[in-house]
Amino acid sequence: MDVTNEVHSNDVLRELNDLRKRAELTDVVLVVEGRCFPCHRAILASCSPYFHGLFTSDYAEAKQERIRIQDVSGVAMATFLDYAYTGRLQTEPDQAQAVMSAARIFQVRITCFQAAEYMKDHLNVFNCVDVLMYADMLGDCGLVEASKTYMASRFDKLALHPTFVQLPLNHLQSLLDRDDLMTNSEDNVVQAALRWVHFNLAGRLQHLPALSRSLRQSLISSTLLVEMESKLPSTWSKLVYSDSSTQRLGHVRTELQIFLREGNDLHHSAPCYDPSAGQLYAINMPENMDSFSRSVTVTPDDQLYMSCDIVTRKGWEVATRQKNFYQYNHLLNTWQPRCEMITPRVRYVAVCGLVYLKGYIYAIAGDETKRTAERYDPSCDKWTSIPPIPRPVSSKFCAVTLDDSIYVI
What distance in Å separates the CA atoms of residue 191 and residue 32, rounded to the nearest whole number? Predict the structure, then answer.
């Protein structure tokens, strides 16, 4: 007889995890920030070269029943142990760095990679500078570049955020050198550099000549050039600027133009045109999206949202999910699922009107009554029902915004 129980290993790990939680049959206690974590040496050693070396060495800790772990937070330790016993890594954005640091200490490469990918996926204006400095400290080139790319894509907002002035000089220079800065004008770049200098004028004024070499003189207003020179001590030479006349990416109005195919087939990508580069490229679409049934809207900060019908086939049976809502991640070229709509309103041929107005996204009609509506709040990923429109609309209606109002035609 040669029979394999496919779920045996999962069952064993599940039972070992239950034993750990009850502190039964454990043979070591890890002490982290005053918290005690009963564990099994074999489990720790099997998934961590650090613990394998510790428990098989001649060090005193190898035989101790209680071992103090330094430079690891209690939350990160708990997260790591959950991963060791379940294979599932679960954390919050504000704990990702602590988890990654613990994974590096314990030499668990896959967890380091997963934590880094998690941080890339959760970059925002509030944390990108901190993530960049953390990644630079670790020497994680991939995370450094992802942070810089994000910072370039949100430059005007980032330059006004308090964390901007915390950037080290070398990273600020490399950021100001980029052609892909999303900024309305070169004057904004100059103002950002001056803001960074003024944060610590005594210590940073000496760096103004170095920063000026990243600023494109032909694109700077004459008024601001005069202001720049006025900052210099009388004994200094005039500033030397970059002679590049290449406009930053944000100087030219660029609109993401997506050409969604029509037809009764399922498509996994859509062609797009980038006016600034004059190039066609493709973005991935949600798997099994019905090409007939989708609505798209773009927010003022260039966030792309789509409601669509997802088709699932099992043999001759076809099932559809009609409340799907996605946000496009341009850094990863993926559509990330967001909170489903309250009412199914994406059906074959008939789709909802999707529009943005003053911080909210509105989904109108597309349902069986052709009247209901709801509102999405991106800040908390939540849909809320709102009053229906006065009368049903046809399947070919459109919704547009003007000033403070939505018009359904």
Answer: 46
User: Is 84 within 8 Å of 47 (Cβ atoms)?
Assistant: yes
Residues 387 and 371 in one domain: yes
46/78 same-domain check:
yes
For residue 383, tell me if it sits in a domain: yes
Domain span at residue 97 reads 8-121
Q: How many domains does the chain have?
A: 3
What is the pLDDT confidence band of residue 303, given thresholds at 50, 70 and 90? confident
129 against 393, higher pLDDT: 129
Q: In what order do the strands lie in the sheet with 382-386?
A: 353-357, 360-364, 373-377, 382-386
Domain match, 245 and 362 both: no
The overall pTM is greater than 0.70 = no
Q: To which residue do tokens 């798209």 refer?
A: 296
3-state DSSP call for residue 86? Answer: helix
What DSSP letter does each residue of 245-262 carry, written as one string? Answer: -PPPGGGS----EE-PPP
pLDDT in tens, 141-183: 999 999 999 999 999 999 999 999 999 999 999 999 999 899 9
CB 56 within 8 A of CB 14: no
Q: Which residues contact 21 (CB under 8 A, 6 or more apart)?
A: none
- Domain-ending residue, one of 75, 102, 121: 121
243 shares its domain with 260: no
Q: What is the mean pLDDT of the chain?
A: 83
Q: Is 399 within the bounds of a domain?
A: yes
CATH number at residue 159: 1.25.40.420
Cα–Cα distance for residue pair 233/239, rounded to 1 Å: 11
Q: For residue 319, what pLDDT band results from cuts at 50, 70 and 90?
A: very low
Is 144 contained in some domain? no
CA angle 65, 70, 75 (to 5 degrees): 95
Residues 193 and 215 occupy one common structural domain: yes
For residue 271, count other CB atoms closer than 10 A to its CB: 13
The answer to whether the CB of 114 falls within 8 A of the CB of 96 is no
Residue 132 in any domain: the answer is: no
Do 257 and 395 fall within a single domain? yes
Q: Does one domain contain both 261 and 403? A: yes
User: From residue 75, how far is each of 36, 95, 112, 222 by CA, in Å?
Assistant: 12, 8, 16, 53
Nearest CA to 363 out of 378, 349, 348, 353 is that of 353
pLDDT tens per residue across span 29-81: 999 999 999 999 999 999 999 999 999 988 887 888 999 999 999 999 999 99
Averaged over 273-281, what is the pLDDT?
65
